[in-house]
Amino acid sequence: MSVWRIARLVARKDLQIEWNSRVLINQVLPFAGVTMVIFAFALDSDAVLERVAPGLVWLATMFSMLVLVQRTFAIETDDGALDALRVAGVDPRAIFAGKAMGLAVQLLVVEVVLLLAAIVLYRQTVPAGGVVLLVTTLISATCGLAAVGTLYGGLAAGFRGRETLLPLLTLPAVAPVLIGATRAVEAALGTAGAVVSDGWPWVGLLVVFAVAFGVGGSLAFGPLIDE
Amino acid sequence: MPAPVVELIDAVAVLGSFPALAGADLRVEQGDIVLLRGPNGAGKTTLLRLCAGLVPLVRGSGTILGFDVVAQRDEVRRHVGVLGHQNGLYLDLTVGENIRFWGDTVSASTEETSAAMERLGVADRLVDVPVRKLSAGQKRRTALACLVARRAQLWLLDEPHAGLDAVARDELDTTLREAAGAGATIVVASHELERAGSLATRAVDVVAGRVREAEPGSERS
Prior knowledge:
The complex is a heterodimer of chains A (about 230) and B (about 220). Chain A is mainly alpha-helical. Helix content of chain A is about 85%, strand content about 0%.
C-alpha cells in the first residue's frame, strides 16, 4: 500500500478518535479561549491588546498545540498502538504524514477559533485585502507546526517525563513560526500600520520551514520511534 | 515437504553488548503452536522479537515465512503479528473501528474484516463498544481479531494469559486452537507452563540464549 494511502488512514483514524472522545471541543478549545481571556486580563489595555493581538493568537496556538501533540501521542502509547504499527511494518513516513495531517486539521480549528476570539476580545478586524494573506499564513504556519509537533511528539513519546520534555524540545523549534506567522498576520490585519505586502516574505519563511520539517521529519521519524 | 514458517540457524542477537541469543536454532512448521519455556532473561522475548524482525541478527541466518530476517525485515514484519503485555489497540475507537483500521492497512475487504470479527466473537454485541470499556479478555480477543484482519500468518505471543481471569484464559486458549486449526502458526512465550503447555503442540526450552527441544510430552512440566 502506498505511503499516502496509509497516511490518510492514520489521519482518518486520529480524527475519528477525536470525534469519539471530543477532547478538542471539550478541553483544548476551552483552554485556548481561557488563555486569550487571561492575556486580556494581564495586559488590561485595549491599545496594547490591539497592537499585540496577532502575537497572542500565535502564542495561544503554540500552547494549545502542545496539548494536542501530547494527546495525539498518548492515544498511540496508552495500549502500545504505536509499537503495534511499527511491528506491523507500517511505513514510518506514512505514520508521520498521517499524524501530521490529523494534527494540522485540529490546529486549524483552534486557530480559527482563536482568531474569532481575537476579533471579539481584542477588537481586531480583517480587511478584505488581507484575507488571502491571512488564509495562506494560517495554512503554511499550521503545516510547519504540525510537522514539528509530530516529529518531537514521536521523539518524546518513548521517554519517561515526556510531558515536560515535549515543551522543552518544541517551543524553541517553533520560534521561527511564531515570529513569521505573527508578522504575517500583523500585515494581513493592518496592525500598527503594516501593509499586506509586508507579510508575504514571512509566508515564504513559513513555507520553507514547513517543507524542511516535513521532509526532515518524515525521514527522521522511523529511526526516532524505533529507538 | 513445505518450507518451515520459522527457521533460525545459529542465531545470535545482542541487546546492547549482552548476547541475548547465543546461537539459537529453531524450526517451526505451519499450524504448530510452540511453547517457549525458560527463566526470566533466558532470551524468550528476544527470540520472539527476532522472529518479528524487531531485533537485528548479528550472526547466523534465519527465514520467517520464507523471508530473510536480515535482508527482508520489513516483509517479515508485515506478515507476523506480535501480542505482548499490551494489546496495541486504540482505546477511544470502538472494537469495529479498531479492526477495520488494521484491516485497511493491508487493504482487507469488508468481508475479510467482518469474517475476522465473526471468528473472534466480537461481531455482534461488542462491535460498537469503545475498547476502553472492554474487559481484559475482550480486549485480548479484539487484538487477536486485528491480527486476523491484517492477515498475520505467524502469531508471536509474549505471556498472552497475563492479566486475564480464568474465563478469559479459557476463551483465549479456544481462540488460539481455532486459529492454529485455520492455518495460523503460533509461538508462545509463557511462564504458565500448565496452561500454555496444554495449548502447545510442542515445547522448546530457552536457556542462556540457546534453544533446546523439550522431551516429547513434557509441555506441561
